[in-house]
Amino acid sequence: MRVAQGTVRAVNALAARWAGVVDGGTVFSAAGVWPLLALLADGAGGAARAELADAVGIPADQSAAAPRELLGGLAAMRGVDSALGLWTKRTVELREAWAAGLPAEVHGVLTGDLGADRATLDAWAAKRTGRLIERMPVALTDATELVLASALAFRTEWLRPFVETPMESVYWSDRVPLGLFRSTALLDRIGVADTPDGHVTRLKVLGNTAIDVHLLLGEERMTSGQVLGAGVGLLDGRHPVVPGDRLPYGDPGPGLRVEKERCTSPRPPTLDVTTVAYDMRARHDLLRLHRLFGLTTARDAARGHFPGISEFPLAIGSAEQSTMARFGALGFRAAAVTAFGAMGGAAPDLRYLTTTITARFDRPFAFLALHRHSRLVLAAGWVTEPEPFPEQDWG
User: Fold this and answer.
1) CATH 2.30.39.10 domain locations along the chain
2) Cα–Cα distance measured from residue 391 to residue 395, given in angstroms and rounded to the nearest whole number
3) Predicted TM-score (pTM) of this structure
4) Can you tell me whether residue 288 is helix, strand or coil?
5) pLDDT at 17
6) What is the largest CA-CA distance in the chain?
């Protein structure tokens, strides 16, 4: 099952807007939030419906099919596990039309026993992410009438692995990061984009499940949001990119050096890449960014906002996402669990010349993890704290 390009653009647009407000090292998944917002938009009414539709980026009357199509497309992707979960108290009777569009066997029950319900939700999150995320990010209280959640986990092994090495970095001079190095003759893996906010160097790291990670290094003055936003813009061709085999000699982009080198025998041009390993986790309170996610009106517990879901008056009491991402020498792992809780309303012989491109990601940089064919962004982040090089290996 393929994901429609309109849906891909809508999810990636949400990722770009979210990138504009992130602060510090973090990882987030718009692909984990978007289908839940679309399902809520389908069942919402009044101002809440309009706000959610605006956040989703598609008309409310089209928001019924799009999230189901996205979930089906994610399930068909190699290396991706995705799931939708819904739990309600017995007092909440769902509208048949809304519930009929949900995947089979997603509806569970909230018993009202907070300990038992918490254990059930946590077990679901752990199982659906292969224990990459152990707890459901929802504020479960006696007032919680409904929980709507998504889980997304994906993995890939690099087509060409890196070699672990200690990295020297001026930015991280107080530590020895775990560096990753590899060399390739495929110069098109690197490129430089000219964006409105500055130049950005993009490195494509290809995985064996058609899931790739793009590393993005901007000019030092650029913010994390500008670099991440530029990376999303590159996916739909909004910014011109000069590929590695057409880069001029010198320093054509952030972290890049292109130069002629003498060598002892004929050899093709090479791209030498050094970056860092990272293992990061984050938790996001989506209600803190209620305008971004179209949840401003839906928070108001004075009345219900989802007549298309249930006659029982419902308002959004909590909305959170837990995420993780791990980038290493052999591959990449990431996961996200998103949950909405609804409450009641209210120097040798060198005779030959070759070209060598050296790329160093040795200061904070961005990443996008995406499906290669659809170009759907599955997760994005900003790396500020690399993994340390193991001390026992020094020397």
Assistant:
1) 157-277+349-393
2) 9
3) 0.93
4) helix
5) 96
6) 83
What is the token pair recorded at 112?
A: 């009202």
Low-confidence ranges of the chain (pLDDT < 70): 1, 262-265, 346-353, 392-395
User: Residue 96 contacts by C-beta under 8 Å, 6 or more apart in sequence?
Assistant: none
If one looks up domain 157-277+349-393 in CATH, what number appears?
A: 2.30.39.10
Find out whether 332 and 161 touch, Cβ atoms under 8 Å.
no
CA 13 – CA 34 distance, rounded (Å): 10
| Strand partners of residue 167 | none
* Burial (Cβ within 10 Å: 0-12, 13-18, ≥19) of residue 348: exposed
Q: Residue 61 has what pLDDT?
A: 83
CB 285 within 8 Å of CB 378: no
User: Sign of the CA dihedral 168, 171, 173, 174?
Assistant: negative
Calculate what percentage of the chain has a pLDDT beyond 90.
Answer: 83
∠ at Cα 73 (72, 79), nearest 5°? 110
Give the pLDDT score at 394: 42
End-to-end CA distance of the chain: 51
Cα–Cα distances in angstroms (integers) from residue 152 to residues 127, 314, 337, in the given order: 11, 26, 6
Domain 5-155+279-344: top CATH class = alpha beta
